[in-house]
Here is the input.
Amino acid sequence: MRPTFLGLEMSKRTIQLSQKALDITGSNLSNAKVEGYTRQRVDIGASYLNKYANWQTRTSRMALAGQGAIGIGVDQVRDPYIDKRYRESTPLVAEYSTKKDILMEVETVLDNIATDGLTESLDTLKNAISNYAERPDSEELASIVRNEAFNLTNLLHSYYTDLEDLKETNLESLQASIEDTNNIIQRIVNYNKSIVNEYSAMAMGKKSAADSVTGSYGPNEMLDERNLLIDELSYKGKITVYDNADGSVRILMDGVEIINGDKYEELYMKSSTKIEGEFSSELLRDYAAYNSAVLRWTSGDDANFSSGELKAYVDVLNGNGVYAAGYQNDSYGIPYYESAMGAFAQAFGEYMNRFNGAVNEEGVVINKDRLLFCTQDYNEGTKGYEELDMTMSNIRIADSWMRNATMIGEVYNEAKDTWTLSLDGNHVNQLVEGLNNDIVDFGGRGDYEGTVYDYLLFISNRISQNIDFNQSRYEAAYATSNSLLDSRDAVSGVSETEEGINMLTYQNWYNASSRLMTALDDALDRLINNTGRVGL
Amino acid sequence: MRIAGDTIRRNYLRRYERNNKDVFDSEMKIDSGRRFERASENPIDAARALRLRKSISEVKTYQTNLKTADSIYTNAESALMSVSGIIQTVYEKLVEGAHGTRNLNDLEIIAKEIDNHAEEMVQSLNIDVADRKIFGGLNNESAAFKIEGSGDSKYVTYNGVAVNSSSDINAFPYSGESYLDIGIGMSTNQKTGRIDDQSALPITFSGVECTGCGMTKRSAAIDLTSILNGNNYVMSISVGGRNREVQFQGGTTDADKVSKINEALKEAFQETAELDPSGEFNYIDYTDIQPYRNCPITTTSNGTTLIDYDAVSNSVPSGKTGSDFYYSLKVTMNGMTKYVDFRGGDTANDSMHNLRASLEESFGKNTFRVNSDGTITDQSGSKYAQIENASTFGDIDIIEHPLDTGKDKIDTSTLVNDGNTYAVNINGKRVVMSVGDTLDETIEQTNKAIAQSGIFGTPNVPYMTETGTLVSPDKDQMIVIDNANPNEAQFSYSSIDGYANNIIQLVLDSAKLLREGNQDMVARYADLIYAAQSHLSIAIADLGTNSKFIEFNEDRLAEVEINLDTKQNDIEATDLPSEITNWKVLQSIYNASLQMGSSFLQQSIFNYIN
Here is the structure.
């Protein structure tokens, strides 16, 4: 027999369900602008009889049919595959974007296009030498040559200062990024703990503790927060995310397990107190100790990154191209451009010294009084000429040239073993020709052999092409990332219109359920109050 | 595809930002007038732009150089034209003076005028342009031409040497060429190590090339009776472009006087080395002497010869180092024999390096390979050279830096007949000493060998004959003498004359003839001066040709500059008409995107339901 109030009971549940659906719609609309929010929906199913349930009998099936709908749970609409693809693309966006931005700052320092850079300085020096060839006995013209050479060395000094500042800035940015990474890791771990607790309380359908809760109705908002943090973590480096059975996640960053449930690793920059010298910060001291930023996980594993923001910082701070040694790598970072400019200082200075009869082919001093360029330490008498290469920071006009500007116009008189001014300018003209045509090995690592001027073009081209490469890779990765974000939004994002339609639907549903309640009430009223009173 | 609200907003913002950036970039291009501000914006064009800038900078240098050259050539031409005009006047005066009706007073007046004209010619040729004495060769310090002497003994000097002393223009001081790079491919002649004279523009002129030098024949003789015993004399003597002040003392007899003068001449002019009995080499500047030794060479069982570099560097007498010795080798390979000297090194590597450098210097790079195992092979390493000592030298002791002179000396006690041949190295040159029966004989033979070999140049010392005539070993060289200092004792001398080739000297000589009233010779000199103008005419023609060349290059470089500027503009400068059009389009897109945003961002179903 049908229970008298079955309809009312069903109608009550339906009204409650429609109210819950309206709640979730409202929640979706409310969270439409919340970053990382995944739209939710109420899973509704038809209530049906289960013949094996002990509270039912075979004879009661007909009577108990028409139970209406029941709410199964509130689910979030998310596609794990799109999440995975999106997190594969974000480290590339981060890496190329960061690298591009930093290299553009390097380009600004070494700029030859918008400002008068080293190419202009070299041109001016060559012009001064060419003018001097006209009157090798002119102290004035010789002084102009020396002054232009002085300006060129000063330009190299300013390059060094700017590049060092840039290095320090990026070292600080790397440190901030490390701290941010650790912070994200800790927050994910905290969410792991909370989510596990929530699942313990909510996933009642689990048959045993070992069963996975994946797919169960869980703490949607916490999952959103954790997913958002995982997205942020993917910006730092290439990660792989695995779901644990208890609802927590296990994350590998470039093969190193950094999170597993409530266990985690933290990233840090390897420090050293062994290096001598004064440093304005511990960061700079640690960097100077290894000529690199050396990153480690607390487990002791090397932190090597194949992509992501951390890789970008490591590459620009440790990338030394063909000059890489120790912990450095062979990408073209700030150290490479410092080395390349250092190679210019050394090769150019030594070329000039060799031309002037100060050093032999092996770079060994044969006449110290003929030196045109040297290191600051040599001028100060603390180091021999061969002990230290000339670099951007330490290249100086040699004291011998400061004392005698016209030295560059002198030629060797073998019989008298003396150097005398060559009045015909032949010697000086040969220097101009040599600077234009002589092939010089820069850096001795096979990086470049060519003329002095062509080397500067080579460096300029290299940096502009590096930026161009990173820019184009960034644009490609960004487009992919955006496309994946669109796809994710297509699944998980809140559409106001859709929610509006849902709202109308649920409102109508609510109205209809309420109307049903009225109809049932009327029916009961008829039955209870008006039945059996015929003729009254 | 389901479109979420965030997808619309995010994509709209991204596109809006891109549109905004496009407008900003376009505005930047219009504002700055540049197509790109950074090389990374357009790496290929940036590389081309930097190369163009280099070319433009070079063109500007060439143009500056051409302006300097133009000024020098214009002034040089005008100076020579002025001299040419003066010569015409002098010629007319001489023709007037040669006229038989002129008395001595008239001739004196003309002579004075001609003297003045000679001074004018000197002044014109000593013109100074941009701190350059343009007819002084490489001399920028002082006036190149001077008239020395007085009265009838006036003579013209060029850079301190009498113009009559040599007919070789290169024999005068400061006679080199100086060049300016004007963008015609300046290069170095690999043989001479100097700038190829056809790859740059000369900017120095030899004054004696323009005006002539030397004489048809000229020498001088000193009156030995005018030289008194005990007096000190200073003679100025120009021989073949060299001028020296020679100090000598008077002697008791003519032979004594001639001997003392010859000693003084040798002291002044000798430039080649001569060994003296003390073991020192005179007349050259040096400090160190390194003896030659026999190189330690061994032969392996298969006949390969090896140099023991360790022995070269280390098996040396006590107190010496490997670099104190030289070696002379005979190297044979592929039927070809080469001789080479090399200096030992203080380490085996240094010795090997020195030998390699010597081989390369003598025979060019990539001919031989000097290996650390002591062998010398061809470049492939497959063929071994036969190495042996070129000569067998005895060991000779060197007295290093004696306190008296600081110059190394040879221990001459070993230079007496002992059957050995010795060799030493001075200033990179090998001196072989053949030992005679006595030390004097050894010294004589050695000095003769040095002179004949010419390793220190050719001895060219003028000498005086027993009659007082001064003679140069080079028959083409003229000798001009004078008392150098009026405050010292004076001697009498006479010139054994010919005709001067220098036009200013001819003018001065013609004035002297006018004073002497020698009108026949005046007429002859008028003809000589007329003929000597040919030097000037050639010089003027050369200057004219080069001036045209300068003009041509100025025009050429102006065109090159325009072309380069055009190319630079094409690459670097903003094409304003097209960029402004582009900016307008971008701005329209930007405005449209704003308008779109305002219309769709707020729209949803909530705008339509109650």
